[in-house]
Amino acid sequence: MRNLWQGRRIPLSWLLLSRQPVRLLVALAGISFAGILMFMQLGFRDGLFDASVTVHRLFDADLVLISPRSASSIRMAGFPRRRLVQTLADPAVEGVSPVHWGLMLWRNPETRLNRAILALGFNPDDPFFVDPSLSQKTESLKQKGRILFDQLSRPEFGPIADWYREGRTVETEIAGNRIRVEGLVSLGTSFGADGNLLTSTETFLDLAPQKPPGSIEVGLIRLRPDSDPQQVVERLQSRLPDDVKVLTKQGFIEFEKNYWKSGTSIGFIFTLGAAMGFVVGCVIVYQVLYTDVSDHLPEYATLMAMGHRLSDLLGVVMREGFYLAVMGYVPAYLAGQGLYWFVRDATSLPVGMNATRALTVGGMILVMCMLSALLAMRRLVDADPAEIF
Amino acid sequence: MPAVEIESLSHAFGQGEMLRTVLQNISLKIEPGEVVLLTGPSGCGKTTLLTLIGALRTVQQGTVSVLGERLDRAGRRRRQQVRRRIGMIFQGHNLLRCLTAEQNVQMGADLLPDLGYRARRDEARHWLRSVGLEDQMGKLPHDLSGGQKQRVAIARALAAHPRLLLADEPTAALDGATGREVVELLRRLAREQDCAVLIVTHDPRILDVADRLLRMEDGALLPSVE
Ligand SMILES: Nc1ncnc2c1ncn2[C@@H]1O[C@H](COP(=O)(O)OP(=O)(O)OP(=O)(O)O)[C@@H](O)[C@H]1O
Ligand SMILES: [Mg+2]
After folding, report:
1. Mind listing the pLDDT tens digit for each residue in A63-117?
2. Which of A10, A305, A309 sits opposite B99 (nearest CB)?
3. Same-domain check for residues B1 and B81
4. Domain assignment of residue B24, given as a range
5. N or C: which end of chain A has fewer CB within 10 A?
6. Crossing angle of helices A266-295/A355-380, nearest 10°?
7. Which residues contact A303 (CB under 8 A, 6 or more apart)?
8. With an 8 Å Cβ cutoff, is A385 touching chain B?
9. pLDDT digit string, tens, across residues A173-218
């Protein structure tokens, strides 16, 4: 350690950068811009995927049964309800609860226009919700024709939340049936659903009379605390016929995310946006470092004439790249945080900083700067010490 | 062992039709501690000779020994290591613009092997004092006069403890009196170190600082007039 400290040199890279504040600022602005762009694009991408599973996260279940024909939350197929009951035979299963799940046509009470809304029907006596305040609200759903409306739904469904808060009785129609808004919840929109509503099994079946009786879309299973969910999944899957698929709750969430990731080009578009940021950053950093090396070529040649090694000088350029990466990342990170906060505030999209993304963008910025430094270094080979006399 | 020993050195630039011989059959010897001046008309090949002695170019023909190393057989890496033991002073001062006087000199001292940071810094300060710039250590080249810059360059060249000092028209950018001062300083400090010096110059006012005067014309050395 002492030796390292004593062996240190004049911090040439740092001085080259810091004694040209304008160029340094341009470089840092470019890197930060690229970083912010990457944070934005990747944040939106992950945020959209996360938003697609807010409804999936509602339920406090360990395992989930779905039909193998279900493709995503907007195309859930039914399976026989007795499959859910059959799982009770397994000693690890503590309790089960069926959920109806499907899109319905909601009539905007103001404009009288219909629009598809995602409706969930569950047992109000045993709703399996993670959030206890939600479980309390379900009490009111025991009366027929009552629903809870997602106040984060798009405004096209009508000023439901405003009316409700004003104390008005909010009523409208779904498939010709009268329903009344009995409360508000906050879930948020996703790719598939512009709005959500929660209701009881009974009301749900009234609203969707075409559904075959005894068929459900989702079966929630709660396990005894000491059981291993993965083992139970395998056991149930082998015991039950293959008209159902057994998933862990995480598996259920991934099932939905995967649909949007692989079935649509949303992921690709945002990743492409992030890649654009990367390329723009590369170009800017390369420009800055290349001009820097070119401007100082006689000085580099002088150092070579004095007997400094070429590899030491290449190291100077590499270190410049490294310092730029570090100094450019900090403002990009802070601006990213600020933008996420802004987006969360302005939309209901659940975007936030997480360690993976912070590291990904940090890594991209580092690669960007080092790659540019590597390319700019080629210019250094042009420095001919014989030409400086 | 002489500091420099050259035997029938020839050098040409270009190829084929464009081939131009710049140095022809040059032989010379410089003893340790000797101060030698090289003069001659423009374009006669002085700088080319200097770059060959300074291990900055590959030798094409003839033998060149500098500080006991055969440069005509040395590869890139070998030449770089020889350069560490040669101090160089350029026509323009060639200081690093982003470094202070002290840091510039330390870039020279940094070439010394096995010396801690503080020792190298003290070395740099010592040489700046020797050239009379103890008050200007923290200044950037931009804020120094021409003579001061050239003195920093001398300090930088000496800070690596060279056994041979090469200077190409070190007074070209200076007025007569300052040029004379700088060259005298150079000679005095080199003497103290027992360091051989080869100065290329056009400046007639400094010819008398030399122990020996070499004249060149059209790529060949003229017989010396003692
Ligand atoms: N890299 C090169 N390529 C081709 N020709 C060169 C090169 N360097 C020098 N020359 C030529 O070699 C000849 C000698 O050049 P050199 O620089 O050694 O002269 P000099 O004696 O130092 O002149 P001056 O007093 O003007 O500095 C000149 O004709 C020059 O044009
Ligand atoms: Mg010349």
Report:
1. 999 999 998 888 899 999 999 999 999 999 999 999 999 999 999 999 999 999 9
2. A10
3. yes
4. 1-85+163-226
5. N
6. 40
7. A313, B96, B107
8. yes
9. 998 899 999 999 988 888 788 899 999 999 999 998 888 888 999 9
The 3-state DSSP class for residue A59 equals strand
Q: What 3-state class would DSSP assign to A85? A: helix
What pLDDT does residue A1 have?
A: 57
Instruction: Among B125, B146, B161, identify where a domain stops.
Output: B161
Q: Whose CA is nearest to atom 22 of ligand 1?
A: B47
Q: Which ligand is nearest to the CA of B38?
A: 1
Residues B11, B58, single domain; the answer is yes
Could you tell me if B220 and B119 lie in one domain?
no
| Each residue's pLDDT tens digit, A309-342 | 989 999 999 999 999 999 999 999 999 999 999 9
Do A229 and A223 contact (CB within 8 A), yes or no?
A: yes
Q: Is A294 on the interface with B (CB under 8 A)?
A: no
Under DSSP, is residue B198 helix (H, G, I), strand (E, B) or coil?
strand
C-alpha of A199 from chain center: 27
Domain shared by B16 and B127, yes or no: no
Atom number, ligand 1, closest to the C-alpha of residue B50:
18
The CATH number linked to B214 is 3.40.50.300
Name the 3-class secondary structure at A271.
helix
